[in-house]
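During the first year of the project, the team set up a workflow for recording each protein of interest as an amino acid sequence followed immediately by a discrete structure-token representation. This format lets reviewers and collaborators read both layers of information side by side without switching files. As required by the reporting guidelines, we include two representative entries from the current panel. The first entry is reproduced here exactly as it appears in our internal archive.
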Amino acid sequence: MQKPQLLGSVMATPNGTLVHPLYFLLVGIPGLGPNLHFWLGFPLCFMYTLASLGNLAIVLIIRMERRLHEPMYLFLAMLSTIDLVLSSITMPKMASLFLTGIQEIEFNVCLAQMFFIHALSAMESAVLLAMAFDRFVAICYPLRHASVLTGPTVAKIGLAALTRGFVFFFPLPFILKRLSYCQSHTVTHSFCLHQDIMKLSCTDTTVNVVYGLFIILSVMGVDSLFIGFSYVLILRAVLALSSRGAALKAFNTCISHLCAVLVFYVPLIGLSVVHRLGGPTSLLHVVMANVYLLLPPIVNPIVYGAKTKEIRSQVFYMFSQEGRYAG
């Protein structure tokens, strides 16, 4: 197959000449040949199907069941919606790359994918913080829970998460467009991330480095600190309970959320550390990035489905009804 012409627009600016490629080339997983990539495409398609069906089922169950219209479940519906969109932005393109070997992704499409990946990740971080606040109020101030987290308040929190994710990450495509890409056009991942596109530039990236560090600290960094602080207060309140059974029951309501927090933040922190260390992109970078983006949309529905009695019972009911109609 003939390779596309990678050199795109060349623009003269007061600061010099900007060179933008028509395409970036996605590598997938470095070191793996086309055959291994091809066979990896099938489990990836299965993972996407699992993530889509799981998150969609949670959203529909919460929407249809009025008794689930409580803050904890409404935040869970927001989390599942974000995971559904995030997996749809990344996994189909990855599957196409693995199964067909087509590496090209248009320059502007790559920037758009990069924006949505980072913005949706920030939204997910905000929703995880909101869920931690919900558990904090429910355990530490149970009598005030209904008055603090009302329906309008939950809606405002969701809108704030959406707005913050959009506002903080909206500049990223534009500060990447001010760079010139006159050397390699190969992105050493299966999708586009700010750090990797930035490394392809042959011009000064100080603004990108500083702004990227600023938003990762002020968004995910602040969120993770508040989540940790919430759980310190929750743990103190749980340990103060006189009954061990009551303490275990109270903390058990947090297990699913703790799993979601760990699945989201551990790969994120690892990915941030390996990127900040600099050097060429290694297999570790790629694996951490894949875990960070692919794991939460798959794991979250499984964990919440298994640990949340109301959702689990609704899933069983749906399958029993389908079996009855099929019989």
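The second entry, processed by the same pipeline in the following quarter, appears below.
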Amino acid sequence: MAGIKRKVPVHRLRCFLSMVGFFSEPGLFPWCARKPPGWSQLFLSTACKGNFTHMIAKKCQKGQKSQKEPSHLGPLDGSWQERLADVVTPLWRMSYEEQLKPVISGYRNKSTFSVNRGPDGNPKTVGYYLGTRRDGNIVCVQSKHLKNIPEKHNQVAQYYEIFLRQSPLEPCLLFHEGGYWRELTVRTNSQGHTMAIITFHPQELSQEELCVQKETLKEFFIKGPGAACDLTSLYFQESTMTRCSHQQSPYQLLFGEPHIFEDLLGLKVRISPDAFFQINTAGAEMLYQTVGELSGVNSDTVLLDICCGTGVIGLSLAQHTSQVLGIELVEQAVEDARWTAAFNGITNCEFHTGRAETILPQLLKSKEDEKLIAVVNPARAGLHYKVVRTIRNCRAIRTLVFVSCKPHGETTRNVIELCCPPNSAKKLLGKPFVLRQAVPVDLFPHTPHCELVFLFTR
């Protein structure tokens, strides 16, 4: 259900939030049974469109009044049944196929393939892991059958495996055991352009020996069997760590175009090999439209786009706001955002490179008198505590939209810090936020994962 956004029935959303610990013990508020001062109206006022506690309170008040039978409103005919169906199952008039219009198979625009021993014991197998290192039972299995991986990604992985099995160099399965060839990342766009990024552990190879390997790889994908992949670009990264940024170890373009481009919400967006971009393009459009609707930006507001990646959220809303200020750690992504703004003629956006906990306090010093709306889209690790504290203590920020790909874990901690009563020991001095809505958007069909968009106000 890529990108499907539903007006979820209250009981289903409460169930979902309970699963991630928001309303159950030991969840977001394990002390809920004690009803601490300020919390009932502070946080639990709502978790979707509609006020849970207000509705419950009204029901209780009604129940405490007279137990009179309801007045007669007419015969129980089909119209009442349709009205009930419209409330409880608002999509009942649409076929399920119509509900699932966005792409639900092969939707990933980025896939990362590992190299390890396959079921047959061959260490030069390209695919995805089964098992764990802790249990010592890792097996690398080809991904041709996975519904979320596009054929093009599988094709590139297949030819990379052919290349590895022809190469005299061994793969790097464990750093301390040596080996060279490592993972493959494939990025594609809706026009079918394909970028491949191959990671390589240089070990003790000289620069001359490295050049030989890069040239061999290049020839394989230009003139050899790999030419069938029709790559738009091929990158090579020397990495001695599990993950390396472009700043730590530059991506080396072996051939082709340095970037791929995507059309999203009327914008032409540039994407570098290291830049974050939502892995489901059709779903991302729905996600960003949801963010725009919830944020309520207008010409009087300044939008803070925190952890902005390639800047698409801010850029897509720039025409509706007075200014957009984006913050992103990855330098390549910021360069992409600036290029996208210039190419699309957007002049009211600024993008800053660095850690949000360092950049945000500096930006806010000159914005205290502005009407600010903040959007945060952090990685799975959630927001740094200093970022939460800065947002919480900035009186000018009255609306916050929080996009989470992992609603439990660190996001739960972030929500507690945003919504708890003032706490001088933690330097959370600003007025607490209230969770008003939570809208799930399915970016990951065939998996249990879902993006969840929270709207906080104060």
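For the second entry, the following points were noted during internal review. The longest strand covers residues 434-442. The CA atoms of residues 10 and 48 lie 7 Å apart. Both points are flagged for discussion at the upcoming steering committee meeting.
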